[in-house]
Amino acid sequence: MPYVIQYLRQEEKGKIPDQLFPSARAGSIQQHKEFVNNVQGMAADRETQTMKNGADKQQGLPDRIVLTGFRATGKTAVGKALARLIGFRFLDTDQELCQRMGCSVTEAVRQHGWPYFREQEQTLLAELPCWQETIIATGGGAILHQNEWQELHQGSFVVWLRTDLATTLSRLARDQKTAAQRPALTGGRDRQEDVQDPAKEISAVLAEREPLYRAGSDLALDTEGKTPKALAGVIHEQLIFHQPCSL
Q1: Has 26 been labeled as part of a binding site?
Q2: CATH number at residue 98
Q3: 110: annotated binding-site residue?
Q4: pTM (2 decimals)?
Q5: 135 falls within a domain
Q6: Is 220 a known ligand-binding residue?
Q7: For the chain, which end, N or C, has fewer CB atoms within 10 Å of the first or last residue's CB respectively?
Q8: Which domain holds residue 230?
Q9: 182 among annotated binding-site residues
């Protein structure tokens, strides 16, 4: 706003050009002062935001923090806690996909099969590298899209949340609210094909995915006995002090 700069410079000298502020001829000094205060306030706000952004960069906060891991590892709860802690927005990719598809993940898989859902998931993952200041909780199978995952990993800090098999089974058994939203991980559209012992099913899927989780993450955290808030604090510390580790 060049005219604002010119106005402020003239105002400092006690001279206000009529062409910039015609009411000066009427002697509306109060209006001039309010105008100056507003402009100076805007400048101060911009300076504060710039300092905040600079502080974030000094702390080493990446553009995105991505949470990965199997079902029931707490990605959504930890993601929300971390978003509150550092002031980022939160995105749950499964919830986003449900909105786009107009149905639950289970319903999408029942009607169209896993390939359809994976295709929708792949499309969403390809969009995420453009998101800024976002905590992203991904579905357990998102790691399977290796090309999109590598693109997302650039500029992101990826955290693998994990639990042992017994804890996973226990959490899934207790989580009746979302049980209906979790389709079987193997099988097709026919529910008879989906029937499988949960422990065997999860063990088989983890055997496939764990090497991908490990290779595609910057930090691994065990979640047994830890609250989402505590885990969010650990992730924040790792971001600040640049000490990726496995806990």
Answers
A1: no
A2: 3.40.50.300
A3: no
A4: 0.71
A5: yes
A6: no
A7: N
A8: 60-183+220-240
A9: yes
